[in-house]
Structures are given as structure tokens and as C-alpha cells.
Write a structure and sequence with these properties.
This protein is of the alpha/beta class. The longest helix is centred in the C-terminal third of the chain and has 15 residues. The termini are far apart.
Length: about 210
């Protein structure tokens, strides 16, 4: 029996996933969570095999949750299920320890297959992502400025690129405005950009936002 935790801030989405998994006798949902801290609480207190994790949740970010889970419970497999296209986050979350990455547009059959794959200790990637991973092994991966960013810097960069203001980002990430301003300065320096408009143009050009 594969024991699964659903971590997503949309209750209706979690309900849809439960309905999909209910028809498979080898799978059972043992917990649900609507934010990062609740997710960690579920993992710490409920035996489970796989966490289906949304990368964008309020409070503690998905990448932070992923790293905490893998740090404390390395045998728990994390399958990221996100609204973001693969090219925006997939390689980053796999490097952080995720066992797979799926977009929420994926078919139900693919989700079930991915859960079984990661539960066995494997890694699940789509054929498109496999091509992206192959490309990332080339030196161009290290040459793109946004790959120099830390996970938090990358998160802040995307939010800036989407037109979010410093105080809005601070509130969503539960950080001070001074901290976000510091992250913004690091992003501009590492990416050799000057303004938020430059960040947006870069993000659009490299399909980091849609």
C-alpha cells in the first residue's frame, strides 16, 4: 500500500486528486495539508511514503518544504505537482531532492504512474523534461545567470518579474521588506541587471514566467 499525503492550498484540487486515487487499491491518502507548516506537521506525525507537493503555497515555500522533508525524512519521496511549466521549476526541484515533477495539466493516468514510480524509489520525468535534463548537462546550464541564484533568490526574482511589489512579496513569504530588498539586490547583481523591468524581460525571454 502506497501511503500518500496531499499538500496543496486548494481544497477542491485535493478533493479531485483523492477521487482519482480512490479507484486504485494500492494507494491510500493518509493526510492533507493546505500550507507549508501543516505539510511538515503531517510528515512528522503520519507514516507515509509519498508527498504530492505543490511548489507554490502560502507561507513556507515549496522548495523550503522539500528540503526540510528530505533532510528529516530521506525515505519519504516527494513528487512535485505544480501549475508551473516544467522549464520554470523542474530541474531546480529535482536538484533539491524531489523524486519527480508533474504539471497539474497532466493526465490522471500519468499521475498514478508517477506515484508508483517514485514509491519504488525511482525518478519520474516526462519525455519533454528528460530532454531538458539532457540539455542541462551541457555547459550552457552554468552560463545562464538565473541558475546562479539560490532557491529563495529565484523565488523572489520570479515574483518581481510578475510585477509584485516588495511589501507584497514580504507579506507572502513572511519575511521583512528589508530582507526582500536584499534579495532583490542580489538578484540584480548576479544576473547583471539594473531594474525590475530588466528582470521581467529576462524572465519572459527564458520562459521563467508566463
Amino acid at each position: 500500500m502506497i501511503r500518500i499525503c496531499l499538500a496543496d492550498d486548494h481544497a477542491m484540487f485535493r478533493e479531485g486528486i483523492k477521487q482519482i486515487l480512490a479507484s486504485h487499491a494500492d494507494m491510500r491518502v493518509v493526510g492533507e495539508a493546505g500550507d507549508g507548516h501543516e505539510t511538515l506537521d503531517r510528515v512528522r506525525n503520519t507514516p507515509m511514503d509519498v508527498v504530492l507537493l505543490d511548489i507554490s503555497m502560502p507561507g513556507l515555500g515549496g522548495l523550503d518544504i522539500l528540503q526540510d522533508i528530505k533532510g528529516e525524512f530521506p525515505r519519504v519521496q516527494v513528487l512535485v505537482l505544480s501549475m508551473h511549466p516544467e522549464e520554470q521549476y523542474a530541474i531546480r526541484v529535482l536538484k533539491a531532492g524531489a523524486a519527480g515533477y508533474l504539471t497539474k495539466e497532466s493526465a490522471a493516468e500519468e499521475l498514478v504512474s508517477a506515484i508508483r514510480t517514485v514509491a519504488r524509489g525511482g525518478t519520474y520525468v516526462s519525455s519533454r523534461l528528460a530532454q531538458t535534463l539532457a540539455a542541462s548537462l551541457r555547459s550552457e546550464w552554468d552560463l545562464l545567470p538565473h541558475h546562479l541564484l539560490s532557491d529563495r533568490e529565484f523565488q523572489v526574482m520570479r515574483m518581481l518579474a510578475l510585477g509584485r511589489r516588495v511589501h507584497e512579496i514580504a507579506a507572502e513569504l513572511c519575511l521583512s521588506e528589508k530582507t526582500i530588498t536584499t534579495y532583490r539586490a542580489r538578484v540584480l547583481e548576479k544576473m547583471r541587471l539594473r531594474t525590475n523591468v530588466d528582470i521581467t524581460r529576462y524572465a519572459l525571454r527564458h520562459r521563467l514566467i508566463t
